[in-house]
Each structure stands twice: as C-alpha cells, then as structure tokens.
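User: Here's a chain of 219 residues. Predict its fold as tokens.
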Amino acid sequence: MSSATLIQLLVLAAIAVFLILKLRSVLGTREGFEKPPLQPGEREAVVSGPAPVAEEDSRDITDHVPEGSDSARALMAMKRAEPSFSLSEFLGGARGAYEMILVAFDKGDMSEVRGFIAPDVLAAFEEAIATRRDQGLVVDSKIIGIREVAVNEATFLTDSRIAEITVRFQAEMTTVVTNAAGDIVEGSETDMRRQRDVWTFQRAMGADDPNWRLVATGE
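Assistant: Prediction complete.
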C-alpha cells in the first residue's frame, strides 16, 4: 500500500469517527399536565425546508412513523435544523430517561433527574411523593422490561425551533406499596402488571444543551 493511499484511509477514518461522535450527542405517572397551546405567530413544521434530507436520515424517521405524516414532516424539519439529530438515538435516550425517572419517583428522590424534567411536571412528581410520605406509604417497584417505546406524535415550531416528541411507553413491572407498619396495602412482589405512559419531551434544536426535557405526562 502506498503512503498516499494510507494517508487517505487515515483521513477517512478520522472523518467517520467525528460523525459517530456527533450522532451520539442526542439526549443526554403524572396526572393532568398537558402541553401549552401554540403561542400567537408560532407555526408547526412546514413540509418544505432549506435543504433535502439524506435517504438514510429519511429511513431513520420512516422506521418509526408513517411516511408523509405530520409527525414525519416535523421530524424532517428537526433534522434540517440540526443534521446530527437521530430519532433512533433519541428513542434510546427516552427509554433510559423513562426508567430513571420512574425509579427516582418510586424511591421518593428526584434529585438525580430534576435537570431532565420541566418545573411544573417536577412539582407534580414531588407533590405526589410528599403526599405518599405523609400517609406513611413506601413504594417498591421493579421494572421487568419495557415492551414499547414508540413515537406517538412529533411537532416542530419553525419560529422558535422548539421540537416536541411524544413517546408511548409500555412497561412490565412489579409494585408493592407498604404502610408505616410494613404491611402490604397494594400490589404484589410476584404479580406483574403493565404500565402505559405517554410522555412528551422538548428541546430547542440547534441549542448547545443536548438534553431533552420531560414537559408533559399522561396515559
């Protein structure tokens, strides 16, 4: 192999490593918290954009939402605003966030995840924790597996570049609730139950902060 060929291979390898690192920069049960309505003058994602989306990026979207749907167009607009955005990697991060937040809520300590939750949603979690504590209840949950992590809806505001992705989760878990005396008042250590949640994550595309925040939860 000639020295010129070797140099070309090294350059290509360096470029490949750089692109992989860029793609990895993404993403670093409440009652009654809905997304706020659009503000006057704000628009959701438009069909056209300043630049076409590569075929492999299109597959990253159409693997998860119907081609040509409103959600697909919104996700395409997110990619135009931030080419390194990967929906598949986002869903992997959302799954991890879902598990971490559920565990933190059951333990009654949201300190490690508060940076990933919007203030009003965090306040609802902490209020529920305080109520449970006042009643002398302790929750012990174990996640057996997460059977579904799927895009429910995606929107993109072209003026503010705010992206929102609503994700459906289905988890299989065991939950035991005990009172102050240690007696089981709800659940079982052996009976598995299914929990379904619909959570909305939000982020400004192109911002320096790569983290998405939980802004709404529901079923």
